[in-house]
Amino acid sequence: MNILWILLAAAMVFLMQSGFTSFETGMIRAKNSLNVAVKNISDFAIAVLFFWGIGFALMFGDSYGGWFGTSGFALSGISDSYGYAFFVFQAMFAGTAATIVSGAVAERMKFRSYLFISLIITSIVYPISGHWIWGSGINGEEMGWLENMGFVDFAGSTVVHSVGGWMGLAGALVLGPRIGRFDENGKPLLIPPQNLGTSTLGVFILWFGWFGFNGGSTLIVDESISKIFLNTMLSPAAAAVTCMGISISIEKSGLVRIEKLLNGVIAGLVGITAGCAFVEPVGAIWIGVISGFVLYGAEWFVLRFLKVDDPVGAISAHGFVGVWGTLAVALFAPLDLLPLNNMVDQLLVQLIGVTAVFFWTFSVGVIVFLVLKQMGVLRVSAKEELKGLNIVEHGAKSIWLDTMRSIQTVVNTGNLQKSVFVEPETESGEIAKSFNHLLGQLNHTFDNIRETMNDAMDGKERSVPVDGEVNSDLEQAKLWINQSTTKLVKLNKTLRNDALHDSLTGLPNRALLMDRLRIKIKQSNRERHPFALLFIDLDGFKQINDQLGHKQGDQLLINVANHLTESVRESDTVARLGGDEFVVILGGWKQLAELQDTIDRILQHLNQSFQGKEEDLLVSGSIGVSIYPDHGESEEQLIHNADQAMYQAKQAGKGCCRFYNYSAHL
User: CATH assignment of 510-665?
Assistant: First the structure.
């Protein structure tokens, strides 16, 4: 019966992997959702194999001075049913510790490096700290040094969850934040999750699996299981209600933040894990309530003080709340159930334990992440991050994203002859079909306009032979034709101007830019003199546009266009690609120093405040530079390479300039 219970509980804990997958994929953006899901199944596969080969022995083998195990590698010496069942259950815990890291480093870490981190966690970091606390788990004699001191962590608030949280903290610190998570002043900016409904489903699955996580840690079937189940139900419920109350009280909107509610449930589960077998139901509720407050405080500390970007809140919910849950054992458990029978002594030992595990896990984590960073294999490039890890890391495409990108390409290029691919029998396919229908109507309208213009121009040039006397009706008709032709010619000029210029700023648009760039390349070839192409992206424009409104944002773009035009010669070209992106074609310079002076002048104009209707608008610009012919011999290549250099300027701190560097993009 005991073996059956251990295996059933292990299956429930295994189901938590699907809960973590659903929760994390819902909390991040669609372009990275598959990457997160694949990481969760991959790290579990690695966890099982390497915990079997190495980790289990380090955690439960014959102890070397209470520090780590030395026997039982590849389960040598274990051949009975209980030993197998015990390994299966513990392997699920190792997989959980590895999975926690996935959320903290989501959306910017290279897949292969993440797999290596999972290997380190499950074969070294988790087993060694686990030996300190649970070393006697299989034979009852090989106690780790913390367990020997009286440290108590029944089901893994520290052993599992804090280890995952602290490794996630190390990774997030070394990796740095996602692009767009903080503005140039370090103020956090919201990156909305893609599907909180999926995350909610994930939390329900986690809550269900946690009954096996905590209940299975008894390793036997006895009357304590019902109390463990009750506490595992009460604590997350109390934490969830607490987080709802805090959210309503402190959020400006007065609404419940769904992310806080979901992480509140997880915090309550993590908080009760260490003491679920000891505390009474009232104590479980208090642990849950305080877990909610700890979660809120930790998330503020991590995001606003440490400036660490944790997309799913794993560091706070697992790392910090895991510490609280472990300390809570000494505060809420009956003293006669604790090894030291004294609250102060027990609290001191608990504090020593959580501190030791933090320094061990965090130190190893920082070292490993820094080594990977130094090797250049830790983080994807800025371009890859913006594109999304589903495509970059796995070659997987999203029908929705592909459709939206195709539509955006048509909008940016102005090529109305290029239709969007229609995926049959899908929602995105219906969108593409409607967009193609709109393109067809536009093309039909433009064809009619062109036909009318051609007829009018032909009528203007053709003489009208008249035999005999010209009556007044014919004279009036000729007059009407002449007047109509004049109007159509003016309309033609107006339409051509509108088609080649940005409607907001009056600057050349992409079509006219490409024409002028082709002309500039031919001129440069004749005169054998280089020219520069500047790709400019405004820093902070989105926040200004969002916070002050589109009218203020439009005024800012007009001001920027005027400043750019004033900064260059009349023979140079300043164009707007769309949004907050501008391109400048600069010629006439003989030395790079002259070019740099012009760029510095542009930066100086951009790095200042612009007068809005209500307040000054602060903006800066990141500039990427490509030089013809050194950095490209075609229009597309010059723009692409300048765009690449602009992302380097963004990474260098924004508000600066970078020249294209071949080696940086190999």
Answer: 3.30.70.270
